[in-house]
Amino acid sequence: MGLLAGVFKAVLTNVYCCECDDYLEATTKMEVMTTKIKGCEIQHFGTVAKCKECGKEVYPTRTTKENMDKAMVGYEWLQKEIAKDKKKKR
Ligand SMILES: [Zn+2]
Question: How many angstroms does the Cα of residue 34 sit away from the middle of ligand 1?
Fold first, then answer.
């Protein structure tokens, strides 16, 4: 079955929150997000992490990198689809 948003809930420890100015725990959740790559808006599933203390979004290096990787996969897929589309029209 498909992966649903909110299925992967995990707690990260030692995540810096600039709001609290401290290293705290953060809860993570899979959500659909939009990342801009070279002017293309890519919609993909990504991990959103939120500070357990204040609820503000935090950006742990690992999840930020993972989200970027997912966005890149989406971007490459989109480029292939566009290329296919161009071939069809010719
Ligand atoms: Zn906080």
Answer: 23
pLDDT in tens, 36-53: 999 999 999 999 999 999
Predicted model pTM: 0.76
Distance from Cα 78 to the centre of ligand 1, integer Å? 36
Say how far apart CA 37 and CA 41 lie, in whole Å: 6
Ligand 1 center from residue 32 Cα (angstroms): 22
**Is 3 in a helix, a strand, or coil?**
coil
Residue at token pair 């995540």: 15
**Which residue type is seen at 12?**
L
- Written as six digits, the tokens of 68 are 């970027």
Ligand 1 center to 76 CA (angstroms): 35
| pLDDT reading at 4 higher than 60 | no
